[in-house]
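It is worth pausing here to work through a concrete case rather than discussing structure prediction in the abstract. The textbook approach is simple: state the sequence, then state the predicted structure, then interpret. We follow exactly that order.
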Amino acid sequence: MKILSLLILISGFLIAAEPEAVKKPWRFKTTLGINLGQTVNQAFIGATNGVGFNPGFQFEEVIRLYSLPHEWRSELTLTESWALSSPQTAFQKTTDSLNLKSSYLYHWLDWFGPYGSAKLRTSLFDGYDLEASPYTYRITDAATGLQHPETPSSPNGTFIFPLTKAFLPLILEQDVGVFVQPYREDDLLLEFRTGVTARENIAKGQRILTAVGVIYNDTPVRQLDNVYELGPSIGTHFKGDLFEKKLSYRLSCDALWSFLQVPITSVDSAKQFSFDLSAGVGFNLLPWLALNWQFKSIFNPAILDRVQIMSHLMLAVKFDH
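Step two, the predicted structure:
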């Protein structure tokens, strides 16, 4: 299945050598969004003294080929943001997400055919829990279930507890199946998919905080392991434009039921279900400037047995060609 990932990623470039079936089959879209916030409080009634700084950005590159019977779509999204607030003396990342997805669809009919897809999801930087005071963490070992305490170090006045390494956890997925596109026009696409998905959760030795709410001592931490999954999957993709492309929207969701997990974990059937949901709305203020809202929700119990949610609003510069 891992070989499939490489084949899908390069298939679009190989197809480009074939004669064009339609005019301008290739489309490219580049988007760069930036947010920046700073607050300074000194003896201001009702506010804590200190300085807050919140920089962040999002980069997105979309490549599409539509030349029947071939269709190829690839999307790269990198989202990063950090926060620094007194009395802490180090930046703490609040968003660190790298997503790559590539899909190849072969149209037996204009609206139906087989497809293959590969996905990658990870983070670029090390992950830490930063605190202004020393706290004890209670770590549960992934293999034995035994617990042991650990207290973080404080090299610069901020107590730093390491959680994850760069590019870990690394989530890889490969899908094969069939698709249906009951409606496809320039301003609207509706697509459904069903198939089989293999997923590799590469996370051995990484740590995640499992506390619900704020806990100031004896904080529960779970150590992760590698988990490999296989099962049937379904997905949908819906996107379009309104008001002469002044407003754009999109919604996509993929769900997997993992009937096979290695190693076999002590989870019931309800926890073998996982999903990846994303949505977005864009307001085009100028031909090259947009206000974008994006939402993402992930449930992957092999990593974290809770729904992960991320949402952000950014002013973005975009380039279509």
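Step three, interpretation. The CA atoms of residues 297 and 309 lie 4 Å apart. The chain has one domain: 2-320.
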